[in-house]
Write a structure and sequence with these properties.
The chain is of the alpha/beta class and about 270 residues long. It is about 35% helix and about 25% strand.
Length: about 270
């Protein structure tokens, strides 16, 4: 950071992210402190690549997405943090906007929302349920922390927020097969969380929610403008909703959703 700028830490969580970790770390190479928390089940070169790029690497057992991100925050050296998943990276315009904001110690704000842009099925997805996707990822950790129900937590901040120009690149899926695998995993986690909260399954959840989600993503939010990828994503999203409530029904009947395979758990899309 330049003289007079507020020092910042980049807090990154990762599991088997050797394909993405270099891009993520290079996008925040300018921060004063980069800490990468690697899930203990990770078995690829994520750890080695992060260390080669000068990051502080901590291996830590995965207890949930929210818990892992808060663990990373606790090991940051500075109050200002940029909280990322390893499959994300600040694109150039956003990186410049973050640096400008921190150069003025937040300009009176305590946190900044950034617009996440997902690359999937060969293109940037700019419509449907994937975009816009405003996420609070730059903030004072003394004023905020991750909360919510796994796998989709959010930062809750006690302070004023603003939005920054530019986009946070997101390479969540390798391909369609990876998306389907992630749907299996996250629908299990979500169904278990619903059951733990006392939610009971309803036929209407299975019959009405999936088509409603498809119509929202493909028609109301103009997913059709992303071509065939937009259609595939809208259908997959509707299937995710169906599977979540079908697994809730299964658990309610005394069944038990399958555990994820070792090393498969990654950050939520």
């Amino acid at each position: 950071m330049s003289a007079g700028s507020a020092p910042a830490s980049a807090c990154i969580i990762a599991c088997n992210e050797e394909r993405n970790i270099r891009r993520c770390l290079e996008s925040v190479a300018w921060v004063d402190d980069r800490v990468v928390v690697v899930d203990e089940r990770s078995h690829d070169a994520t750890d080695r690549i992060a260390r080669e790029l000068g990051a502080r690497v901590i291996r830590h057992a995965y207890a949930g997405n929210v818990e892992q991100k808060n663990f990373a925050l606790a090991h940051a050296k500075h109050d200002w943090v940029i909280s990322l998943d390893a499959d994300e990276a600040l694109l150039p315009e956003l990186a410049a906007a973050v640096r400008a904001a921190l150069a003025d110690d937040g300009r009176g704000a305590d946190g900044f929302f950034v617009n996440r842009l997902t690359h999937h099925l060969g293109r940037w997805i700019r419509h449907g349920d994937f975009f816009p996707d405003w996420q609070l990822r730059v903030f004072r950790r003394s004023r905020g922390r991750w909360q919510g129900v796994n796998p989709h937590g959010r930062v809750v901040l006690d302070g004023r927020t603003e939005r920054l120009a530019g986009e946070l690149g997101h390479w969540s899926y390798r391909d369609l097969a990876d998306q389907v695998e992630r749907i299996q995993e996250f629908s299990r986690v979500q169904a278990a969380a619903l059951h733990a909260s006392g939610r009971r399954p309803r036929v209407s959840d299975l019959c009405l929610r999936p088509p409603a989600r498809f119509l929202r993503a493909y028609v109301l939010k103009q997913g059709f403008r992303d071509g065939v990828p937009g259609l595939v994503i809208a259908v997959a999203t509707a299937f995710h909703v169906f599977l979540k409530y079908a697994k809730l029904w299964e658990i309610d009947r005394g069944g038990r959703a399958a555990e994820p395979a070792a090393g498969k758990t990654r950050a939520a899309p």
